[in-house]
Amino acid sequence: LRRSEPVLAIGGGVLTDMAGFACALWRRGIPWCRMPTTLLGMVDASVGIKVAANYHRKNGIGAFHSPLHTFIDTSFLKSLALADVRSGVGEMMKAALVHD
């Protein structure tokens, strides 16, 4: 993987966070793009640049590494279970309440 070649991460929030974290670490940061496939991942991706993992505590290890692009394809939402939709709606309400 060359330092100039971007990585495309396609998946839920955990996968895109881990891919972004790996890109932040590899060769002191390589470019990356994300395509979240869950509503929660789409909402989180639209407002955040933190890529972290829970390690001994929430977001115990991580970095701030902006993706080049975030691609949102709403056709993924058709496959979500009701519980996943509710999680995404809850994240939207949280983002609306804490917005500056």
List the secondary-structure elements in sequence, H or E: EHEHEEEH
Mean pLDDT: 92
Radius of gyration: 14 Å
- Main sheet: which strands, in order across? 1-2-5
Number of discrete helical segments:
3
Total beta strand runs: 5
Q: How large is the share of residues in beta strands?
A: 15-25%
Q: How much helicity do the residues have?
A: 25-40%
Shape: globular
Characterize the biggest β-sheet. 3 strands, parallel
* Distance separating the two termini: 39 Å
Q: List segments where confidence is low: pLDDT < 50 over at least 5 consecutive residues.
A: none
SS-based class: alpha/beta
Question: What can you see in these coordinates?
Answer:
With 100 residues, the protein is α/β, with parallel strands linked by helices. Helices cover 39% and strands 20% of the residues. The chain has 3 helices and 5 strands, in the order βαβαβββα. Strands 1-2-5 form a 3-stranded parallel beta sheet. Strands 3-4 form a two-stranded antiparallel ribbon. A hairpin with a 7-residue loop joins strand 3 (50-53) and strand 4. Helix 2 packs parallel to helix 3 (82-98).
